[in-house]
Structures are given as structure tokens and as C-alpha cells.
Write a structure and sequence with these properties.
Order of helices and strands: HEEHHEHEHEEHEHEE
CATH superfamily of the largest domain: Vaccinia Virus protein VP39
Structural class: alpha/beta
Number of domains: 2
CATH class of the largest domain: Alpha Beta
Strand content: 25-35%
Strand order of the largest sheet: 5-4-3-6-7-9-8
CATH topology of the largest domain: Rossmann fold
Radius of gyration: 20 Å
């Protein structure tokens, strides 16, 4: 590999202690990609962005590492519009904005919209848009990806509807606004059987993962795609 680099890049010298331009290799099942490292995230970022470190805390807020994982599973590209229609206090919005996506949040409660803005401002990021709206009737025409953690009715209220009704109506609305081939990544309690709700909304299940939270909750992370 070193020989290939030496033959390809002109006027290159090796410094193993303080290199000016570090090279990084990424290996998958089929490919090996070698390139220059242009950016490295500072260590400790997740700890600094823990929910209790934010100006506004809510016990149902998703931790930043899981929010980032869900954003990756939704497969947006830099500059894409990413929507969290149940934004709460903005956990997913913060991670989405830090990644460079055009981030839109909405919530049915004005207080949550305001709380999201406070938390985002604390970390030096701004949303592409913030809207007071019901996620089951989103006032948007098209978004590239949707990443969200709807309320289950335990720590976050479903405002008089059952969790199943909220998820079912939301998925049908999401299918109308996400672009063709765009993904919807959401968290749901395992017992809700969100896969069947996705089929009813004519969405294709791409993948699903289970995350144990505590004895009474296993969260299912499901990724759907518009056909």
C-alpha cells in the first residue's frame, strides 16, 4: 500500500509522529478505500451533549449516540432536508444539524418547539426550519429523510390518541412527503409491531434493530423506504 501511495502522490514523505496529512483506510466486504483525513470529530462530544447537559431536559429524550445512529440508518446526503416531526426538546435536531443536514423540526406543542430552539442554540446550531404542527398532518411538500422518535404514551404524551393510532397516521402521512427512495427511521416500543403499521402505509421495511432500554421497554429502531 505504501508503494502505491509513493507512486501516486508526488513529493510525499512519511512522518509517523506528526503527519501533516494523515491517510485513513476503510475496509468493507468488497472494497478498500484509502483517502486523506480532512476532519476528525473531537473526542468527548457525546458526553458534552448528554440530555442532562442541555438547557432543557426531558426524560424521554434520545441520547446523542443513538440519534446519530438513526440518522446514519436513514441514509441522507449532506445538504438534504431531514425532518423530525416529533422533535420534543431537539435531541435528533442537534445531531442532524451538526452533520450538515438542512434540519426541520416540528411538534404539536409550542413549548417543545421553543425548547428545541433553546437546546440547538446552546450547541451553536440553527434549524433550517421549526414549525408548530401535528406530525399526522405535516405542512410540508417534500423532505429527503425523516428521523424521529414518536411518543409512546409513557414519558411523552400522545394527547388523547393511542400510540398505535399516532404511529399509523404518522406513517401514512410520512409516505406522502418523503421523496421516492427516501427513508424513514423511527423508534418504537417492540410490542407496538411497527413493521405491520409500515406495511399498512405501503412502506417497504429496509431493516430493524432492537435496543434494550430497561425491563419494561425494548425500543425497536425501524427503517422504512418509500416505494
Amino acid at each position: 500500500m505504501g508503494k502505491i501511495v509513493n507512486e501516486t502522490v508526488k513529493d510525499i514523505s512519511v512522518d509517523l509522529t506528526k503527519p501533516d496529512k494523515p491517510l485513513v483506510g476503510i475496509m468493507s466486504d468488497e472494497k478498500f478505500v484509502l483517502g486523506l483525513e480532512k476532519y476528525r470529530r473531537e473526542p468527548g462530544g457525546f458526553a458534552r451533549r448528554r440530555p442532562r447537559k442541555r438547557p432543557v431536559f426531558h426524560p424521554s429524550t434520545m441520547p446523542p449516540k443513538l440519534a446519530l445512529c438513526m440518522l446514519n440508518l436513514a441514509r441522507p446526503r449532506r445538504g438534504d432536508i431531514v425532518l423530525d416531526p416529533f422533535c420534543g426538546v431537539g435531541g435528533i435536531l442537534i445531531e442532524s444539524s451538526l452533520l450538515g443536514y438542512r434540519t426541520i423540526g416540528c411538534d404539536i406543542l409550542l413549548k417543545k418547539v421553543q425548547d428545541s430552539l433553546l437546546n440547538m442554540n446552546f450547541f451553536g446550531v440553527e434549524p433550517f426550519g421549526m414549525v408548530l404542527a401535528d406530525a399526522r398532518s405535516p405542512p410540508f411538500q417534500k423532505v429527503n429523510a425523516i428521523v424521529t422518535d414518536p411518543p409512546y404514551g409513557t414519558l411523552a404524551s400522545t394527547h388523547g390518541s393511542t400510540a398505535k393510532e399516532v404511529f399509523s397516521e404518522f406513517l401514512k402521512a410520512a409516505n406522502e412527503i418523503v421523496t421516492h427512495g427516501g427513508c424513514i427511521c423511527l423508534g418504537a416500543p417492540e410490542k407496538l409491531e411497527v413493521e405491520s403499521l409500515g406495511r399498512e402505509a405501503d412502506l417497504e421495511l429496509v431493516e430493524r434493530h432492537k435496543v434494550y432500554i430497561h425491563r419494561s421497554l425494548t425500543r425497536e429502531i425501524a427503517v422504512f423506504k418509500r416505494r
